[in-house]
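// run 5 | inverse folding | seed 20
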C-alpha cells in the first residue's frame, strides 16, 4: 500500500477517534432473513459463486518448493494444486481418468508422481499420464490426451487462483481491478510461509459468517474481554474496489504515531487491514504476516458453513518468534507494540478461537436459529455498517435479486 494512502487512512481514523464518531453510510437497510435459510438461494450461490467463479485457494507459500502439492474439496469440486519442477503452479481435477478416483488424498505434502489407489495409474505433477499397469490387458490408451484434467490457474502477487470450471475465464486483474491488484501485490505476500491452519465448522450460513467481518460496532460489546482490549471499535475506513473492499480499523497502537513525523507512520502499527475479496474471502496482510480466511457454504445445509483460516509468516518474523521463545519473552509480543505487531502461531490461532469461534460465530448460530423459525422476517444493517451494505448489495446484484430496501 502506498505510504500516502496509509497516512490518509490513519488521519481519518485518528479524526474519528478524536471526534467520537464512526463511519456513516447515511442509510440503514432491511436484510431479509430468507437469504440465510432458503435452499433454492443456497443452490444459486453455490453455482454462481463457488463453481462458476474464480477461487482464491491459498498463497504462494502453500506450495513452497517444486514438488509441493495441496488438495481441497471446499467448493464441491475436488482440486489438486501442484508446483512442478520448474516452479510452475498447476491446478487439476483430483480424479483419475480411468475410474475418477482421487489420485491425491493428503491435504498437502511433496510428491512428483501421484498414483491412483484403485488401479495404480500414475500422473506427473504436471498432470501428464505416466503409466498404466498391465496396459496390454487393459488396452491401448493415448497418454498424451488422458492426463489429469487441468483447470485455469494463475499465480499472481503471491496469491494462488483457480477457476473450478475447466472452461472458465481467469484474469486476476480483470477480477480484482487494476488498483486493487496493484495494492495487494504491494504487500509482497510471496515471501510469506504457510505455518498452520484452523478450521471452524458451525451451524451458521456462510453469509452470517462473512458478516462477522463487516463492522466494528460490536468490538467493545461482544469482544470486551478479548479483541476489545486491543482495538478501539466504532471506527472504520472503508474503500470499495468494485465488488471487493478494504476495511481498516484502529488499535491502540495508532496513538504512538501521533507524536511521530508522518514519514515514519506505518499502517500495520496502529490498525488491521482487512480485504474482502468477493464473494467469500477475508484477507489480512502486513509486512510480517498474512491471514487468509476462506468461508464456504455446506453443500447440503444452508444453515451450516466451514471457515478455513490459514496463517503465514515471513522468514524474518519466524526467526523473531523463535528468538523470543528462546529468551522467554512474552509469547504474545514478538516485537513491542511500537513496532510491527507479530504474534506467535499459537497466539494467532487462539485469537481466532477466542473471538471468532467462541464469540462471533456463537452469535451467528443464534442468528441462524432465529432466521430458521420463519418469524423474524428481516434484520437491519445500520448506517455504521457500510461494509455489510456493500457485500450484500453486490451478491444480490450478482444473483439478479432486488437490492436491499432502505429503512424509511
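// decoded
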Amino acid at each position: 500500500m502506498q505510504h500516502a494512502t496509509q497516512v490518509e487512512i490513519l488521519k481519518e481514523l485518528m479524526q474519528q477517534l478524536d471526534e467520537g464518531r464512526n463511519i456513516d453510510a447515511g442509510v440503514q437497510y432491511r436484510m431479509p432473513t430468507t437469504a440465510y435459510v432458503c435452499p433454492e438461494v443456497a443452490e444459486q450461490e453455490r453455482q454462481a459463486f463457488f463453481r462458476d467463479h474464480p477461487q482464491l485457494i491459498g498463497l504462494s507459500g502453500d506450495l513452497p518448493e517444486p514438488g509441493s502439492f495441496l488438495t481441497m474439496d471446499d467448493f464441491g469440486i475436488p482440486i489438486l494444486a501442484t508446483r512442478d519442477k520448474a516452479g510452475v503452479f498447476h491446478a487439476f481435477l483430483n480424479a483419475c481418468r480411468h475410474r475418477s478416483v482421487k489420485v491425491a488424498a493428503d491435504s498437502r505434502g511433496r510428491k512428483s508422481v501421484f498414483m491412483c489407489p484403485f488401479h495404480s495409474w500414475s500422473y506427473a505433477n504436471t498432470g501428464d499420464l505416466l503409466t498404466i499397469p498391465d496396459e496390454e490387458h487393459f488396452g491401448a490408451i493415448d497418454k498424451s490426451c488422458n492426463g489429469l484434467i487441468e483447470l485455469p490457474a494463475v499465480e499472481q502477487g503471491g496469491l494462488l487462483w483457480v477457476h473450478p470450471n475447466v472452461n472458465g475465464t481467469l484474469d486476476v486483474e480483470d477480477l480484482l481491478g487494476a488498483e486493487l491488484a496493484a495494492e495487494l501485490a504491494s504487500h509482497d505476500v510471496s515471501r510469506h510461509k504457510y505455518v498452520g491452519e484452523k478450521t471452524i465448522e458451525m451451524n451458521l450460513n456462510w453469509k452470517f459468517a462473512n458478516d462477522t467481518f463487516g463492522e466494528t460496532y460490536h468490538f467493545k460489546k461482544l469482544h470486551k474481554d478479548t479483541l476489545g482490549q486491543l482495538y478501539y471499535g466504532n471506527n472504520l475506513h472503508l474503500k470499495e474496489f468494485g465488488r471487493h473492499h478494504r476495511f481498516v480499523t484502529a488499535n491502540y497502537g495508532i496513538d504512538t504515531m501521533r507524536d511521530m513525523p508522518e514519514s515514519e507512520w506505518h499502517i500495520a502499527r496502529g490498525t488491521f487491514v482487512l480485504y474482502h475479496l468477493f464473494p467469500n474471502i477475508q484477507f489480512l496482510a502486513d509486512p510480517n504476516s498474512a491471514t487468509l480466511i476462506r468461508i464456504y457454504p455446506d453443500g447440503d445445509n444452508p444453515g451450516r458453513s466451514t471457515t478455513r483460516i490459514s496463517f503465514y509468516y515471513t522468514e524474518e518474523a519466524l526467526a523473531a518468534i523463535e528468538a523470543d521463545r528462546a529468551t522467554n519473552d512474552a509469547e504474545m509480543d514478538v516485537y513491542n507494540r511500537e513496532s510491527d505487531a507479530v504474534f506467535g502461531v499459537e497466539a494467532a490461532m487462539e485469537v481466532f478461537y477466542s473471538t471468532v469461534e467462541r464469540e462471533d460465530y456463537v452469535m451467528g448460530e443464534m442468528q441462524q436459529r432465529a432466521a430458521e423459525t420463519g418469524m423474524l422476517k428481516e434484520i437491519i444493517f445500520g448506517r455504521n455498517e457500510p461494509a455489510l451494505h456493500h457485500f450484500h448489495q453486490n451478491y444480490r446484484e450478482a444473483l439478479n435479486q432486488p437490492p436491499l430496501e432502505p429503512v424509511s
